[in-house]
């Protein structure tokens, strides 16, 4: 009975029919995670260092990989379902497995002295700066 449409609204329901399916698809949790880059990340220039914060609610520190490679800081997350959850018989489940990587280029980032801390779902990475090396060589023309 809940799926019956009153006759007065039937014409309007037919005009919306294909669009209702697309609205449902686009409002699903899986699509919103994928379209948002999976997690929010802020980069702050704190004078003598950079402070990068990433919002990772529900993620454990063993599911996060932080790497600095030639000035590019990458934060990768692989969220897996635990065996405890796989054994349960869910009628409706909105949590899922996902993975995402975000990165930022920091041209004068030092490779020594990096620190990372996960507190209440917020990852904070502190990257000290180094004196920028000048890689420009002036060539005289003969």
Can you describe this structure?
Helix content is 20%, strand content 32%. The chain has 142 residues and is of the alpha+beta class. The protein has a 4-stranded antiparallel sheet, with no helix packed on it. Strands 3-4-5 form a 3-stranded antiparallel sheet, with no helix packed on it. Strand 6 and strand 7 form a beta hairpin. The longest helix has 17 residues. The termini are far apart.
Descriptors for this entry?
142 residues; alpha+beta; three-stranded antiparallel beta sheet; 32% strand; elongated
Poorly predicted ranges: 29-36
Strand content: 25-35%
Order of helices and strands: HHEEEEHEEE
Counting helices, strands and paired strands, the structural category is alpha+beta
Number of helical stretches of at least 4 residues: 3
**Tally of DSSP β-strands:** 7
């Amino acid at each position: 009975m809940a799926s019956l449409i009153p006759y007065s609204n039937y014409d309007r329901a037919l005009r919306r029919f294909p669009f209702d399916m697309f609205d449902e698809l686009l409002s699903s949790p899986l699509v919103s995670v994928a379209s948002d880059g999976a997690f929010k990340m802020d980069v702050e220039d704190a004078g003598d260092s950079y402070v990068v914060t990433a919002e990772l609610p529900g993620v454990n520190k063993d599911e996060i990989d932080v790497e600095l490679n030639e000035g590019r800081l990458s934060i990768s997350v692989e969220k897996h379902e635990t065996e405890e959850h796989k054994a349960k018989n869910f009628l409706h489940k909105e949590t899922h497995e996902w993975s995402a990587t975000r990165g930022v280029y920091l041209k004068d980032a030092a490779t020594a002295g990096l620190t990372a801390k996960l507190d209440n779902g917020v990852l904070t990475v502190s990257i000290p700066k180094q004196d920028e090396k000048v890689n420009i060589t002036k060539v005289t023309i003969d």
